[in-house]
Amino acid sequence: MIPVYAFVAGDTLGLVVLLDEDQTMVSVAERLQASASVRVAPRRGLMVLHQGRPVDPYATVASLGVRPLDRIDLVEGEGG
Amino acid sequence: MRRPRGGWFCEQLARRLREGGLARHKRRFGGAKARRGVATSRAEASVETGSRRVAGRGRSRPLDRNVGSLQEGRGSESAGTPVVAERSRRRRGGRGACNRPQHQKNARAKELAEDAAGVEHRAWYPWSGWTQKSCYQLIDETTNRGVRGLLPRQEWLDEARKLDWDFSYVRAEDVFPTVQSGRPWLEHAAWKHWDEPFRTTFGEYVSNQAAKDEAVFAVREALGRLRDYRRLDPVWLNALKLHGATLPLAEFAAVVGNLRAARFGRDSAWRLTATFGALDEFRHTQIPLVLLHELVKLDRQFDWVHRFYHSNNWVAIAARHLFDELLLASDAIEFAIATNFVFETGFTNLQFVGLSALAREVGDKCFERMVASIQTDEARHAQIGRQVLEVVVREDPDYAQHLVDKWFWRSWLVFAIVTGFSMDYFTPLEARRASFKEFVREWIVDQFVRSLADMGLSKPWYWDSFIESLDWYHHMVYASAYTYRSTVWFDFVVPSPEDRAWLRGKYPRSWPELDPVWSRIVERWRAADVGNDFAVHGTAIVAFCDLCQLVLCGGTPKRNTATSLERAGRRYIFCSEPCRRIFEQEPERYASHECLVERVLAGRAPANLIALVQGYFGLTQEDWGKDIARGDYPWLHRPRR
Q: Which letter does DSSP use for residue B458 in this model?
């Protein structure tokens, strides 16, 4: 499990979310939305950014080389 | 040969006494002294002896050495009457004094009997022959009119305030080392014009503070009973819980900061004013503790008035991180600029004016009086900062600008939470007269910018971000904290439709982006059972800033301003660019501190929310924060199930 800082568009704070190495970015997006769901209603059409750069929705955590305490953003845009 | 100032002072005093003051003094107080037959001549001789000694040896001799020589011989002087002799022996712990409780009790009983019989005691200053009554009279008369035979206030106060002297046995750098006194290190000549605008004497101070304490406690007696608090809006009580926890022991830490300045401040007038500041901070500790902790009878969350700073609650970690550095670790110069100028002049002095007005609107007379009483002290000792800053700006303007920039931002974040919550969420709608943003713009931004311009300083480099944050920061933190309310010691309220309309009007730029968060929370409550707080509660671990230790709530919901940094193999995250810059300017000061996330990841704090709240934050189900209505708001229109 890899802890990352997660920021969901529309949310008011940053969270720490634990990711599995074989999770795809689609799954990561769902995970992040669930973590913020008390404040932000889940929705489609969001895009995952890793360290500020857009990533392939089907890339895995391991293939992207995500390290502990990296920043993952879920922002408005195509993807996920 | 350098001549010490103490010697000059003694010479002036002796001269004034010789020129007639002593004769008048004898006429006024001669009765008691004549009965004893030694005091006046002894006093005169001692003063002269003191000045001769100093002048003759040419050595540094603080004035209190001379005072000490006066006091050493007072035992025999005080033996004018049996009553005086016995009382003074007992007080001094000399012959006749006894530590056995029964004997002390008997002695006290005898004193009370003597008091009842109208026996005049001279135990206050037995060596001088002055009674308690005459001492009070002296304080009053020297303060206000000048007593016959003694110098009027305006003639001695400046000499008493300015008691610096040149050192010959030690170097000034050793007496005032940079590590305690601060930088830039300057010769005393650079500080000798240090001058506080509001001067006070110890007599005036004691008299004024006693009157202020009496006023506070009179209001408490009249309007501070539990039934009076029960009449207040329960939402407002959470503003009291928030202030009651964060204020008193931070003020106690400020005692230490002031005492450091009282010893290591570079001019005697500064040191004297800082001494009053330390005494002020004792008041500011004790009054809220006394007034607010008592409310634990009403609500056990008020127990956090005492417990807060002794806990590992996340807010307490952040508050300690700020106040430990600000009040305990800062040298005298940094303390004066950071605490007296930025924090007190910039924020708390004005905050207390606003809070006092707010409390009046709410009908909380006790809190109103308490805050107003504290504010008058803040206004006095806050003046230290400006005087110190003027010197530092003259000698090292870049350092002055750095301190102002750093401490304005650090202070702002905590201030925004404590006061922003209270003004925009915990004050009943009908009592609100202005939004937090309006208050800050009117009372803080304008006057602070004016103060900086007067000093020749610029606005902090992040000023635009600060102005932007007025619309966002405390709202972001409030919404976040609402959904983690079990992690704090006070309750939260969901803004009603009327509240949200008011907030939309006051924050037209930010509220459209914030309102959907509250719509979501309301939607979650509609779907949940009444009282099921955890149905509308976060469960993920929250991220904290590695500088301010507060939640990552910078920027806007669309664009969080968190920024990260890698240093010496460790990764840090900050809520904002100013926090990151402050860290980078002094990394050795902050790098070793572990934020809560790091403690969790290292296994030193539990990751499970309930275990964290109970086992690490020290909260129990009875005192952790809840929704104030348990989700049962009449405007919620919960569907029937």
A: P
| Amino acid, single-letter form, for residue B459 | K
Q: In the prediction, which pLDDT does B108 show?
A: 62
Residue A7: closest C-alpha in chain B:
B560
How far is Cα B376 from Cα B353, in angstroms, rounded to an integer? 9
pLDDT digits (tens, 9 = 90+) for B401-414: 999 999 999 999 99
Decide: B339 and B378 in contact? Cβ < 8 Å. no
Strands lying side by side in the sheet with A46-50: A53-54, A46-50, A71-76, A2-8, A15-19, B541-542
Mutate to test the interface with B, among A38, A43, A70, A76 (most CBs of B within 10 A): A38
Q: How far apart are CA B511 and CA B515, in angstroms?
A: 6
Alpha-carbon distance B556 to nearest alpha carbon in chain A (angstroms): 7
Helix, coil or strand: residue B180: helix
User: How many angstroms separate the CA atoms of B518 and B500, rounded?
Assistant: 9
Q: Is the pLDDT of residue B261 over 90?
A: yes
DSSP string, B509-546: TTHHHHHHHHHHHHHHHHHSPTT-GGGGS--SEEPB-T
For residue B446, give the amino acid letter: D
For residue B573, which residues of chain A lie inside 8 Å, CB to CB?
5, 14, 69, 71
Interface test with A, best of B571, B599, B609 (most A CBs within 10 A): B571
For the record, the structure tokens of B266 come out as: 């570079």
CA atoms in the 13 A half-sphere facing the CB of B189 = 1
Cα B254 from chain centre:
5
C-alpha to C-alpha distance for B350 and B365, rounded to whole angstroms? 19
Q: In B, what residues contact A, Cβ < 8 A?
A: 475-477, 479-480, 483, 513-514, 516-517, 520-521, 523-524, 536-543, 551-553, 557-558, 560, 562, 564, 571, 573, 597, 600-601
Tokens of B331: 């040298």
The answer to whether A69 contacts B523, with C-beta atoms less than 8 Å apart, is no
Cβ of B476 and A13 within 8 Å?
A: yes
CB-based contact B540 A36, cutoff 8 Å: yes
Residues 6+ apart with CB under 8 A from B293: B244, B302, B303, B305, B306
pLDDT value for B378: 84
DSSP A48: E
Spatial contact of A59 and A25, defined as CB atoms under 8 Å apart: yes
Chain A, nearest residue to B570 by Cα: A69
Dump the DSSP string for B247-315: SHHHHHHHHHHHHHHHHH-SSHHHHHHHHHHHHHHHHHHHHHHHHHHGGGGT-GGGGHHHHGGGS--HH
Contacts of B477 in chain A (CB under 8 A): 12-13
Lowest-pLDDT choice from B64-68, B180-184, B223-227, B554-558: B64-68
Contact A66, A50 (CB under 8 A): yes
Residues B456, B393 contacting (CB under 8 angstroms): yes
Q: Are B574 and B580 in contact (CB under 8 A)?
A: yes
